[in-house]
């Protein structure tokens, strides 16, 4: 795909350390193999918010993800439906929410961005309700749109304005450009009656705004962009149905901690009151299992799904999900976890445990029962 588009997806804010930090954090954690358990049957199905999914992973909302390839949103919907995983449409998505609901059926979630325009917000929520969405995600980590340096450097603005320097970049990628032109240049498809402005002021989205949405929406409310245990606890007390631990893929704050680093503390604080969804740098089955072992109930993927689409269109995305399923299954087999519910803290490798393994004549801090778990 053109560099301009690649940079739009791949980029982060500032020096782009946060997106790197996200993926490095999963890499830092190693898992503890266990042996001699019959692993003939491994079940990847996961219960979340009253529904069973085929895998503990789904597609995170991405504004203008139609830029991955022509028909990208439809491909995401059909892969989600066929593989029984959720796909979350962004308010700034390039397919209408009615269309997505029809394509992805009950696999479709809707991510809602509040802007200052109350009428527009009301109309969006009504439309989502009428289209049969039950899971509403409120993204709260973009009070102000962060500087995305690569976009600034590339002169990428929305609505798109073609500049002389884009022409060569676009022309060099006919495989991307021609189908996009033939299908119509993707734009924000849910902004009827108002104009999409990328850096729209969302700073009025505060606690009372979220409380009002909670009152209004009869389905599940999931708050996305939570990075603090106290915030998570307050949201649970307010009656939210799930917490989505996310730092927007490192696109909002360059010095933000990795999601893997805040996840265990948030789980500890809220206990098992509501499910936790996590994203940020997740790309493999190992990452998925690590996230579940650290306390998440479900994982979501942004960039890697976009890039799979860009690389191989629908087949690319299908293959990516198949790889995730195969890897998750293999990792679970190595850890002796036959079902998603068997993945937990015991799956995380701990140096301390190994140092205290009983030696002949030595003493141990770990009891026999603990070892057998
Ligand atoms: C191109 C792009 C657009 C995004 N647009 C949105 C959006 O409209 N709403 C939202 O809540 N998050 C948005 N995100 C953040 C993702 O939902 C998700 O939190 C993040 O991509 C996860 O990190 P990962 O890309 O490392 O998997 C976007 C991310 C990307 C890469």
How are the elements arranged and paired?
Blueprint: H1 3-10, H2 17-28, E1 46-48, E2 51-53, E3 57-59, H3 72-83, E4 87-89, H4 97-104, E5 108-112, H5 118-130, E6 135-139, H6 149-154, H7 164-171, H8 174-183, H9 207-216, E7 220-226, H10 229-237, E8 242-245, H11 259-270, E9 276-278, H12 285-293, E10 298-301, H13 303-335, H14 351-355, H15 368-372
Flavin mononucleotide binds near residues 280 and 301.
Number of helices: 15
Give the class from helix and strand content and strand pairing: alpha/beta
CATH architecture assignment: Alpha-Beta Barrel
Number of individual domains: 1
Main sheet record: 8 strands, parallel
CATH superfamily: Aldolase class I
Outline type: globular
Q: What does the radius of gyration come to? A: 21 Å
> Strand order within the widest sheet?
3-10-9-8-7-6-5-4
The parts where pLDDT drops under 50 for at least 5 residues are: 362-368
Measured distance between first and last alpha carbons: 49 Å
Q: Roughly what is the average pLDDT, rounded to an integer?
A: 92
E-strand count:
10
Topology-level CATH name: TIM Barrel
Ions, cofactors and other ligands present here are: flavin mononucleotide
The proportion of residues forming helix, as a percent range, comes to: 40-55%
CATH class division: Alpha Beta
Range of strand content: 5-15%
